[in-house]
Amino acid sequence: MSTLGIYVHVPFCGKKCGYCDFYSVCYTKEQAELYVEAVLRNIRHYSDISRTVDTVYFGGGTPSLLTAEQLGNIIAEVGRSFALDREAEITLEANPSTLTPEKLAELRNAGINRLSIGVQSMSDAELKLLGRTHTAERAVRAVREAAEAGFGNISCDLMLGIPSQTPESLTTSIAQLAELPIQHISAYILKIEEGTPFDCGEVRTSLPDEDASVELYLLAVRELGRRGFGQYEVSNFAKSGYESRHNSRYWKCEDYLGIGPAAHSCYGGKRFAVPRDIEGFISSPVQPAEVTDEHPCGFEEYAMLRLRLAEGLALADVPEHRSEIEKKLPPLIKAGYVSFDGERVSLTPEGCLVSNQVIEMLIF
Question: CA 333, 335, 337: angle at the middle one, nearest 5?
């Protein structure tokens, strides 16, 4: 039977960032304890010792607000309820402000072996605009202390298209990040989500325009590649061998089980989602879940997700659609949006910027 990934949504934040649309609530110690009990209860509910779990991912929110003991208890329950691979990749998203040498040592002992640190920028002015609680110096210290604590697989988030961001400030951020002991960078273009505090005229008018955002993204691709971080997905870059194994599940239509309010799953032949409601999650014997797709990973979804990866879509994997796709390729190749070696179709960096439109033209 295929391996399984487990995603745990930790919906707590010390402070909500103005651009964030992910589900989160204000952290309290009491509610966090009830939440962890519910997570353990749900892991036991889905127990299947025949399934080997080789990735666990704590996302949020700010998962690093949980104690190392709480995180360790969740990992231990995964090990009791499933066959936990001894070499499993176990990732924790973390805010630099929550990491201390003592906490990092405890996290290592709890079983966390990969950190995803929300740096976002190495410019204090840009961090202030984003409403982050850390400075660039604090982010550097967190990364260095993580490496000293024994973490050899560290990812940092980098945001593109921040209000007032320039090519020069982005280049500086990339250069400073690349000097740190990290192996992976996730680089996202800031998107204004409806209903967030950033969804206002003042912020929108201060964002780089479309041409400037294109320039920033292509600059990031070039500069990260030059510094040894190869692009393996639209927004993800890694040193060789350090691609995120858990996130790769999503793009390869592999099974993953989501636990927690707002968590999504592709498990048991269906896609389902848990409501964005921590009280409902805590009070229910088993997390409520709504089926969102009865038959996931059909051709369209498979092709769409594969095209997000740098390795692209192998036409041998979709033989019944090969001729149709090949007919659509010439104008996209001429425009510089895709490349084709006779077997694989992949997006160019320019194509990544309009990936939705390109993918729609190819497969729908």
Answer: 65
Tokens representing 98 are 């929550």
pTM score, whole prediction: 0.96
Tokens linked to 48:
């299947």
Beta strands 4-10; 52-60: pairing state = parallel
Residue 58 lies in a domain: yes
Structure tokens at 54: 């080789």
Residue 294 belongs to some domain of the structure:
no
Residue 202's domain spans which residues?
4-250
Q: How many CB atoms lie within 10 A of CB 32?
A: 17
State how far the alpha carbon of 194 is from the alpha carbons of 198, 204, 262, 276, in Å. 8, 12, 17, 16
Tell me the β-bridge partners of 290.
273
282, pLDDT greater than 90: yes
Q: pLDDT digits over 143-202, tens only?
A: 999 999 999 999 999 999 998 899 999 999 999 999 999 999 999 999 888 888 888 988
Residue 16 pLDDT: 84
Q: Do 176 and 89 sit in the same domain of this protein?
A: yes
Strands (E), 43-198: 52-60, 83-94, 114-120, 154-160, 184-189
